[in-house]
Amino acid sequence: MKRFNYEPASRVKEYVNGMDFRYYKPERLIIDSIDSRLDSDEKKVRFYIMDRIIENGMPFNFAVIPEAMQKSLNMTEGMIRETIDSLAAKNAAVSDENQNINFIYPVSGFPTNHHIELADGREFSAMCAVDGMGCAFTFRQDIKLTSSCSQCGEQVRVEISNGEIVNLLPEDAHVLHVDLNKNQNWSGSC
């Protein structure tokens, strides 16, 4: 697999600041990534859980912390539980009363209309189409996104290669963007 070009946040901010928007100043549309808000243990646990959701095609249950997880992450059960709590507190993961992590940005434990195919061959559902596009940066590899417009139902396809959109169907597709800076829990805005 080829090396993925991951643009530093400063380059993205510079690019967006040079654009004109009708309703918002550019700085209102720039948000910190989930990854940038996490410490190293949170990042390790997040990726482990995302990988398990993708591998199993279902939410990750943490009622029992598998020994394999503890060994793989070099963390105790208590450390992993604390880290899962921290991921939830930072709105990076959404769990239920049965100790299932149903969503961990950008991966959904349930089927959605937003299908992602990674360059490494893995496939899964994203929480929304914008999160789906972000998978290219989360997993640092090329992606193909197949989704549908929430307004008209028309199929939308996006292919991102080396950090850039290289294929978009329909060619005049647009993203309806909400001001995510107004919300801490983005899952309520997707």
From TrEMBL:
Pfam families, A to Z: MerB
Annotated source species: Peptoclostridium litorale DSM 5388
GO molecular function, one term: alkylmercury lyase activity
Name this protein carries in UniProt: Alkylmercury lyase
